[in-house]
Amino acid sequence: MESNKYHLTAEDIAELELGTIDPATIDCTELAEYRAKSEFINTQHDFEVSRVYLRDFISEVFDRPMNGERNFEPFEERQCSSYRKWADERNNGLPHDYSENQFTYNPIVFYKSPRSKKGSQKSDGTDTTDRNTHKVILKDDWKHDGWLDHRYFALTSPITYVGKRNTNKNARLLYAFAVDLDDVGPEQLKVLWNGFQMRLEHDPFRKLGLSLIPLPNLIVSSGHGLHLYYILRTPVTLYSFNVGLLQQIIQLLYTLVFFPAKDGKGGTSRVAKLKCHGIFHSFRLPDTRTKPLCKDMETKKAVGVGARIEAWKFVDRKFWTLGELVGYWAGNKKMKERFSPKVIMELERGGRLHNPRRLTRAQALKAYGKLLEPGEPKGHWITKRAMYDSWLRRCQNPDVGGVKFGHRFYCVLILVANAMKCDIPYDEVERDAMSLIPILDKLSPDASKEFTDEDVKKALSSYGREELIRWRLEMISAMSGIELKRVKRNKRKLKVHLGICRATRDVLCAERGDEPWDAHNGRKHETIENSKNAALVRQWRDEHPGSHNKSECARDLSMSRTTITKWWSLLDEADADVVMQSDNLEAPVSLEELRRAMLEGLQPVTPQYQMALTADEMHSAMTNPDDPNYHKIYREDG
Questions:
Q1: Is the pTM of this model over 0.85?
Q2: Residues 107, 285: contact at Cβ < 8 Å?
């Protein structure tokens, strides 16, 4: 066995619970990187940083000078009477007031707690009988924050919520943008640090004083990666129309922070492709545990538990404003118009932005004819099943479909979303998703990062959530790491767009010297002369003269009745053509031609006397056999 470069100390063995394991059999490469990153941040002299612990971390993110108070804390000391009244009305389906100042919104921590004292532990320290728990953070909790001590798994997002669950629907105020960088080693951390220091010296960024990579307020070492928190000076109200704009800002931050490594060296992340999370994503809290960082050398399975997560504060970095973040779009005319000073001011003021596509109640009633009643679920289009099957094939063939490690869970979650869009029953989705486990598990770089049925069950638990149906293509592409492009018509009508495409196709064929695309090299059109089905139907009719039972013919030939009907009719028409050609008559194809053929059998004669008829009477006499003058104009031939 190879010796470890990192030597476990007594503190490491106690913290990671490795007392019963021989240190010589443990691979500590990931733990060594984790310790090296912490040492670099603690010893660097480029920025003044200070270590932040759990209570201070929560205060840094959520405490603000707001509403005339110097240190406004969004924590209730207890559930006030107005909050309990609101909750009762909401739970009983009664009309309830959404007034912002009615009660304080609270952050929510998601963690796992054991159902019972018995139960074996997993490699990450969680109990096998764990249950998911959402806890609303109250002021009393931070006077005695021991309830999070020794938690192996605890998450929160920089958002306050109404109610007891941290769902997107319950989100009310955004306090910070949090960026997640995966697989960051000591070398990548140094590149990130250089980006914090490098100033943009060219216009139009010089006057804004921006660095190549925006300097965060907080940096959290979460184990294999880093979390960067850009805390907002003024929390932003999460109205539905505001959320789309805020999602674009966090995507901007991800593109500014992420630089992929080349051959595992350089860059700010060793991940090849950017994985972008939204504003609602939750992250591990400081002083809770990372994933296990030690492995058994032989089996490559995780041993012990994770290390304590560490966080630091950049002392001189003030809170960010939306205007400063949007400044990175200074050279983009389209984004400057979208995030105009008026829009930024309205977002920071906490108002609801004007949605130009929003209709009044009268306009909506006129456009749609019906409005949803309170509590009535929204409808949605039922898409063709081909979309679900196409995504399933992607997951079944990761090399061809583009599915990679780090995006496996989201690819299964998107499969669930597509199932809802295509109205696929849950049982079928569950069967298909479970069949993907061995395929996606092969993408694991080692045994400690296996893809299990727990990951699939977690994705399947989202089946039935209404928001999954409305996921946009851009969001699906970012989550899955697969580049999906929307068909662009540049606001042209379909007919015009396809005309341009066809003209381009013909020009390119001529340039390459190829034959035209329609040079009769495709599938031949079936006729009575070259169709096998037509020959079989004709043979059956010859064997059954006088029979007109098409259903019997379909059963005998094992064809569908529609196919039999098609060729039966064409054979009848062909036989009629043969009969008319034998009589030297053209086959009439319309009523007018039939009448013309009948009139050709009549010869006009010169009347023996002069008839005084008007033009209309003459037309009637020549065309209407019931007219009394008809026999005076025509006589039958022969």
A1: no
A2: no
